[in-house]
Amino acid sequence: MTTSEEIQRDPGFRIHRHVLSAGEIETLRMECDRLATQAGSACVRHIRKKSERLHALAHHERLLSLLPSGFHVVRSILFDKTPEENWPVAWHQDLTITVTRQQDVPGYGPWSVKDGTVHVQPPEELLRHMRTLRIHLDDTPAGNGALRVVPRSHLVGRTSREAIPAPEHVCECEPGDILEMSPLILHASSRSTAPSRRRIIHFEYAAPGILDPALEWGEPT
Q1: Which residues lie below 8 Å from residue 22, measured CB to CB, with a gap of 6+?
Q2: Is the distance from CB of 195 to CB of 82 less than 8 angstroms?
Q3: 163-191: pLDDT as tens digits
Q4: Rounded to an integer, what distance in angstroms lies between the CA atom of residue 101 and that of residue 217?
Q5: Do 134 and 201 touch, CB atoms closer than 8 A?
């Protein structure tokens, strides 16, 4: 059982180095390029539905071993930033989940629809039982828009960057590295000063049984 002291020491993020081999990275790059070209977008949602290879990757034992026991994938996105698609992302928390349809459920809301998918802000306790894995397929140093996080900000709950004047940490990653993080951690990314290709596979996982039984995840396992 996790103690309160261990929870307080948890920074809310962790970088797992060299999880994927060079051959695996190259295969994933080709698959992601196919999806991005097909979609005509630098942000492709529901990639597990569009690629058997990425669906299998989300369930790979090497990825699942980085997570608490029983966690299952509930969302998948490809981010494909290029020198032409070089946008900054302001400080925020990932406060929404995707579900199949809107239902009047206590504690869930507000609701929205993005790219035809229903999004909702769930109770904060649900978000505490989720983890995100960001799989890096390219070099992501500070100059190429590496993610910036505020360690332990996930312990505060819903908050803003102004409310936590703590130092930030830059999560520089190499191809094959995986950034694990809480959706509640404050994070941002700057516009690249030395932009190059930056492909990231984004998988979100949740503990079993945390979603209200009246709802269904937008991406079934």
Answers
A1: 175, 176
A2: yes
A3: 999 999 999 999 999 999 999 999 999 88
A4: 9
A5: yes
Residues 6 or more apart whose CB falls under 8 angstroms from that of 113 comprise 119
8 Å CB contact between 140 and 179: no
- List Cβ neighbours of 27 (8 Å cut-off, separation of 6 or more): 53
- Count how many residues are written for the chain: 221
HEC assignment per residue over the chain: CCCHHHHHHCCCEEEECCCCCHHHHHHHHHHHHHHHHHHCCCEEECHHHHCHHHHHHHCCHHHHCCCCCCCEEEEEEEEEECCCCCCCEEEECCCCEEECCCCCCCCCCCEEEECCEEEECCCHHHHCCEEEEEEECCCECHHHCCEEECCCHHHCCCCCHHHCCCCCEEECECCCCEEEECCCCCEEECCCCCCCCEEEEEEEEECCCCCCCCCCECCCC
**Cβ distance 58 to 76 under 8 Å?**
yes
Its pTM stands at 0.94
- Candidates 103, 53, 108; CA nearest to 76 is 53
